[in-house]
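Sanity check record (used in CI):
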Amino acid sequence: MRTSQHVLFERSEMKDRHLVRKKIREHVADKAKLPILIFPEGTCINNTSVMMFKKGSFEVGGTIHPVAIKYDPRFGDAFWNSTKHSMMTYAFNVLTSWAIVCNVWYLPPMVKE
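Expected output for GPAT3 acyltransferase:
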């Protein structure tokens, strides 16, 4: 079974950002490795809009294949508003929902010019 390695970091640590960029660049350069999945936005804001992507993932020199995901809250809501519900309430709601439905759009590949 093939698995990918995780690259974890602390956003507030500047040295971690440089290390992550280096690890991603090395991963992209190694053609034997599987593609890496990055969530450059890093934040979900109530499923109504998209925040500006962080530029770091675009600076590593690889081809970017953007994917947009929008959740449909009719049967169950994947968005957790921590100001309204506790984590336990959210987990209960997700686990007892009829379904978590989403639309996925695969956008054209992008290369930094």
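The CA atoms of residues 28 and 62 lie 6 Å apart. If this sentence no longer matches the regenerated tokens, the check is flagged for review.
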